């Protein structure tokens, strides 16, 4: 029996270098046989010097490995700013992700979970794509309406506004309408200039009488192309005095939460987004005349006049007969 053990021992010395495990002096025959079959349980153990150690828990790492098979070594909790998500045999924790400048934090990093980031409002990134940069959300065209608003993981979806009746010749009718509107606009400007000439620099009537007379009624405008005409005029409201914009949108029926949700945007984008919220609430009832009336109630007649003139000059609206 002794001769057989010697044969096995010397055969092991020849075979184990190829297997990456050389028995140490004093290793018993039983240990040599066990070294040939060091297969650790996946997700439960890790291999160290040809013995299987139990994994450390999530949120920990292996500071010192075990010295006896089936035991756990010395585990230590991850330091601040690092994590491990699963039970492991790692010798260090992973560093937490830092959200980019175009992202915001959804959930902060913990010992067992990495930082969760998402694109900031007004930007998006498709989840199935490598999100190297958040893209700017698209805006619907003048002849489109919003089907789905932009989110952090999807772009704005637009839908073409269906015309109620197809005109026989769009080019001819558009030319005629715009030509007529330009003439009406020129007449309106001439009338305003004539009226301003009758007023002295202080705004008092030239005959010295007090302004007891009420201002003339504001003209009613009719859209050339329905809701698309209204949306095309959103950009003109950038003339709205910033000191009045909160009162203006409150009078439109928007909540303070609606207004605050767009505070991070540039002023022009904020006006545009809040207008879209109002249109979604009002639907087909939304009217440029309502917006101008609120400006008049806020004593912002000059701004209302500018917006009216731009709407007419750009052929989005005409004067209602």
UniProtKB/TrEMBL annotation:
Annotated ranges, domain Death: 246-311
Single biological process term from Gene Ontology: TRAIL-activated apoptotic signaling pathway
Entry superkingdom: Eukaryota
Secretion signal span: 1-20
One cellular component term from this protein's GO annotations in UniProt: plasma membrane
Keywords (A to Z) from UniProt: Apoptosis, Disulfide bond, Glycoprotein, Membrane, Receptor, Repeat, Signal, Transmembrane, Transmembrane helix
Cysteine disulfide links: 78-93, 96-109, 99-117, 119-134, 137-150, 140-158
SMART domains for this protein: DEATH (SM00005), TNFR (SM00208)
Subcellular location: Membrane
Transmembrane segments: 171-192
Ranges for domain TNFR-Cys: 77-117, 118-158
TNFR-Cys repeat spans: 77-117, 118-158
Protein name: Hematopoietic death receptor
Pfam families according to UniProt: Death, TNFR_c6
Principal place of residence: membrane
